[in-house]
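DOMAIN: structural biology
WANTED: fold as tokens
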Amino acid sequence: MRDALAKSALLFFGIALWSKGLSLYAYYLLTLAWILDGGLGRYRETIKEPFILAMLILCVIVALGIFWSDHPKLGVKVWKKYSALLIFIPYLSLLDKGRLPWAMSGLFIGYFGILLAGVYQWRAVGSQGIRALDITYVDFSATLGIGVILALYLAGKRDNKKARALLWVLAASLLFIQFNQNARGLLLSTLVSSGLLVFLLHKKRIRTLLAITASLIVAIAVFAYSSASFQQRLAQAQSDIELSTQGRYDTSLGYRLAIWDIGLYGIAERPLFGHGTGAAAPYFDKTVETYKDGRYKDLPRFLRTYHYHNDWIEIGMHVGMLGLLAYAFLLWSWFQTLKIYKLPILGAAFMCFILLFGMTDVLVILRQNLYLLLAITAVAISWQRAHRADHSTKKEFLRKFDEQ
């Protein structure tokens, strides 16, 4: 019974994580399955993972920030966003060799279901994102970027030529769709992370590296030339830069420059502990009227401020240097955990992607993609554990056979 519940919870989570309503039920079901599976009794073993320890530290610091915030109700909402990281604990703890196929099936069904819905929205409806699930073009672009990185990694690790070619086609298709989304920062994050991934995978084989690099450059040039959306956003970026130099900040780029400016000023005011969890957005609304003689005072009419469009400024505004160090430790531990399980290249590519898109967006705001990254990490770790166990069993069998 417990095993069936665990398998069902893992399958359901992979599918439901894309729906804000269903993901909440999936979260509770996963936690219940974990408790019934004896997860609480394995807590000492669980916190030995560097990544889990780091996310616990970050969540505790963000929670403590509520106590010195002038907006505790908002602080609780912010903490809930960061506490989404904790779903990694029951998800990873439930995984074993027998349950891996269920988790992978859920992720596969969910991902390609969302992919088909997004393509339909783009091609048939003529809009971006997935309106029915309240997935914005930024969310969908991040989903595509994660898929590109994972497909390229798997292609680089496959010896079978047909499988490798299929994964390359998948990566190219996802990248083409991403070129037709409006999220410029995420597209750039995908391209740089993919370049790093290809280099790390093939750096010892120069000919292969050059051939793949040339293919990527050609594909990027073709996609950029054929994408009206990409050319439109490029022209808009140039226009935004010109308007910003003229003192106009009511543009996508101008708004980000302004909010980063105020955010850095706010961090400098309270560098150690920040303004308290939940106080970041209200600080902007209060300061924008007078900061630099009201240079940005019209921005609240242009766009309501929910966050600072930057991972580091966001966490720094809430809990200062304490939070910045905790977040840096989280990313470092994430990479170290993947490295421990002999996945350093995938870890480097994912961290590069998170760092780059974290310059223009906030990871915990894109909750579906946070869940996706956590689930992929957990599945990769569990896969490596199962592989190690099989390898150890085989070695023990051969040793006993030789002794006889």
In short: Residues 112-403 form one domain. The chain has a mean pLDDT of 90.
